[in-house]
Recover the amino acids of this structure.
């Protein structure tokens, strides 16, 4: 879905750079700045530094004088702000709102899923103006500790971009290792018999009074969901114990 | 649940401050730094500035020389890193892992829900060392765009803190306005009759050829889920139209 991030009256160049980086990590690239404090903010050193490689987002970003110009073509507007005290759009948590938005059927009618979504962020110091909130369909409120709701601007962008990307289906998590196969119960039992023999040989287990040692080890290894490779390692340990025991005390002929 | 954030070999003071702020917005306050680049990082100007009021988190933070000392008393260790290529803990998305972790039953046995959780973050430039990842129970991977996975350190802390807080039950979203009551169907119908009369009076609606104007307006207002106050406003508009029409063209006596 077409997605735009709109920063209104942003003061700190670092936040513009960090916003570009946050957007790009979540696969978004449409950034519009409304009347930022610095006209050259897209080229400032701090911006570039905090963007940390998300330079294409900065390069494609637009600077416009009014919010109207930032919203061309966008259908669903999300404020990120407190709802004004008098009236205003409903306040919702991002995750709940996104689930609801995307559960609407696709189609041309007005109750359908929107065709595009814009996220609006106010200035670091003053947040969004009420007049800007009034025109939005929802006021997204990131659930923070009631005693400390002071989210950094770029951190708020990061959280909204993450939740929105997740709602849209998300990116896959890639593992560098393939998940190990699981050893079957017979292999575990054989390994335990090998260990039992070895533990007797090193005088740790007394066959006359075994207590619950082997069942305990069995439970431990069950919880660990051993792989065939780990069975191999554990049998190697048992073998080494047996060999050392044989050297220390050769079996009586 | 007892929760600790551990930053290992952090280079940038700004990230330490932003981490404290990110933690505090999500209601966490236990921060430990393992061998940061700056020994005085907790008191540096950039740290204080980026912490933006989360000074209690900085004040309570500990600096220790080794990871071992940072992990005292913690039971479940979450790396935030790629899984090493050779072997290592399973890689999971934070949201999935947290749901699984908290679905385990409470209790003293080893398969139960952990009593405490530590999140480990490596250095900005090199991430976590393999040896540190190996000792963890899971490698959390925040799902980012495969083409640009470069999350800022404090942004990663913010996302993990948010997902963990949400998994723990979250904070409530507070609305400044109480949700408006919904007008009942009779009130909507009466308002529409008032409007119909007014639209005829201002010569917008031709009673001889009404087309589908009133049903269309009915659908529009249904979608809008009108409140009693809005019914009042709309009836006021109808009344004003009727009054203006009466002045413009007094009814024939």
């Amino acid at each position: 879905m077409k997605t735009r991030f709109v920063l209104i009256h942003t003061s700190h160049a670092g936040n513009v750079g960090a916003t570009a980086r946050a957007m790009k990590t979540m696969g978004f690239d449409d950034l519009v700045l409304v009347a930022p404090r610095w006209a050259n903010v897209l080229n400032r050193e701090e911006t570039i530094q905090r963007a940390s490689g998300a330079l294409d987002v900065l390069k494609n970003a637009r600077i416009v004088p009014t919010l109207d110009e930032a919203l061309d073509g966008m259908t669903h507007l999300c404020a990120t702000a407190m709802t004004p005290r008098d009236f205003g759009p409903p306040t919702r948590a991002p995750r709940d709102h996104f689930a609801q938005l995307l559960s609407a059927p696709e189609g041309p009618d007005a109750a359908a899923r929107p065709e595009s979504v814009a996220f609006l962020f106010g200035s670091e110091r003053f947040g969004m103006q009420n007049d800007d909130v009034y025109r939005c369909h929802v006021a997204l409120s990131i659930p923070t500790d009631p005693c400390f709701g002071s989210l950094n601007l770029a951190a708020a962008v990061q959280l909204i971009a993450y939740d929105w990307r997740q709602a849209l289906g998300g990116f896959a998590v890639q593992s560098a290792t393939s998940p190990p196969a699981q050893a079957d119960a017979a292999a575990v039992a054989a390994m335990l018999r090998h260990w039992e023999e070895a533990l007797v040989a090193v005088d740790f287990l007394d066959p006359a009074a075994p207590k619950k040692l082997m069942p305990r080890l069995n439970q431990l290894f069950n919880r660990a969901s051993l792989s065939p490779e780990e069975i191999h390692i554990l049998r190697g340990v048992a073998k080494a114990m047996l060999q050392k025991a044989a050297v220390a005390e050769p079996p009586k002929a």
Remarks:
- The mean pLDDT of chain A is 92.
- Chain A touches chain B through 55 residues (CB under 8 Å).
- The first helix of chain A runs from residue 13 to 25.
- The two ends of chain A are 81 Å apart (CA to CA).
